[in-house]
Amino acid sequence: MELGLIGLGKMGGNMRERLRRAGHTVIGYDRNPDLADVHSLKELVDALSGPRVVWVMVPAGNATKATIEALADLLDPGDVVVDGGNSRWTDDEQHADLLGAREIGFVDCGVSGGVWGLENGYALMYGGRPEDVAKVQPVFDALKPEGDLGAVHAGRVGAGHFAKMVHNGIEYAMMQAFAEGWELLEAADSVTDVREVFRNWQQGTVIRSWLLDLAVRALDEDEHLTSLRGYAQDSGEGRWTVEAAIDNAVPLPAITAALFARFSSRQDDSPQMKMIAALRNQFGGHAVTQAE
User: Fold this and answer.
1) Catalytic residue among 42, 144, 164, 274
2) Name one GO molecular function term (predicted).
3) How many beta carbons lie within 10 A of that of residue 31, not counting itself?
């Protein structure tokens, strides 16, 4: 089938290649002319046969909103727009309403797989009306991993991004657990080869996983991670997961703690720890370290 793909960065570019390998026609647009097949959104839409399917793979927020608004003026009734970026699920209903007023379908799709998706396939979680999903199904089938799993119609509009958000929240907590375990092993005098301990866990243990495999890969590249600064950014989905938990009165202590740990990583000289040190000195006479 034909697909218009907007946004050809690391994920979008690899998705275009995987779809083409599967025999689909993909016409891509990107603001970088070196990556694009066409020079404008209008040229992309005009190059597709109806009913058109256009997949948006641009940063969440204003960029996605502006792209969908532009497509609303260019597409025809019966066409479908897929938002495959990391949009907040609450934006999806607004986009569906905007497009629906012009009889254009909308599907939200959470995509996981990163830079490995080209070869391994992408895990897909999508939401929308069955008739709109059906128009995109050949694309989903080509992008997903081989086998019966890896793609799910999670529910109505918004369900795909909500499921991907929860997936990323779980990922936060799992990464934090591996990081804490690694630091403790590194700190213990009795453990002389932390990297091989991690490698050994890849077989037979209950914590074996792709994240563990990636941790071993990172340690193979830099055994003690000495080239890295202890700073971790967050994409926003961890925050949205915690906010959704509050809205639904669902306790998420591990995911919330993992998010806050990311915030702590950005403080070279933690103001909170200054107060902790001062209080320990006041009540117990514990030594403090003076600022330079």
Assistant:
1) 164
2) NADP binding
3) 11
Which regions of the chain carry the CATH code 3.40.50.720? 2-157
CB atoms within 10 A of CB 281: 12
pTM above 0.70, yes or no: yes
Decide if domain 165-268 falls under CATH 1.10.1040.10.
Answer: yes
Sites in the chain below the pLDDT cut of 50: none
Q: Is 164 a catalytic residue?
A: yes
Sheet with 53-56, edge to edge strand ranges: 25-29, 2-6, 53-56, 80-83, 105-112, 123-127, 151-155
| CA 66 centroid distance within chain | 20
- CATH ID of 2-157, from 3.40.50.880, 3.40.50.720, 3.40.50.150, 3.50.20.20: 3.40.50.720
